[in-house]
Amino acid sequence: MGWEVLPHSSYSPDLAPSDYHLFGFVKDQLCGQHFETREAIQKAVRQCLLMAGTEFYRRGIFKLAERREKCVQRSDDYVEK
């Protein structure tokens, strides 16, 4: 794809797709629901992530490149939304 592999900077939530893309989506989808068991929560999260579709995941992956560039420009400083 012509991408350059860069060294990974220290952990940053703005560079972890699970933090900046997945968790907010799941939180929004399950907001206000109550679950009786851990298994019920796991099932709801799985269903939520399955219904998101491939375009959702593609956007998250491509956001990573943009967020990484912002981080590099800021010398690994935190990147706001």
From TrEMBL:
<dbReference type="InterPro" id="IPR036397">
    <property type="entry name" value="RNaseH_sf"/>
</dbReference>
<dbReference type="GO" id="GO:0003676">
    <property type="term" value="F:nucleic acid binding"/>
</dbReference>
<dbReference type="InterPro" id="IPR052709">
    <property type="entry name" value="Transposase-MT_Hybrid"/>
</dbReference>
<protein>
    <recommendedName>
        <fullName>Tc1-like transposase DDE domain-containing protein</fullName>
    </recommendedName>
</protein>
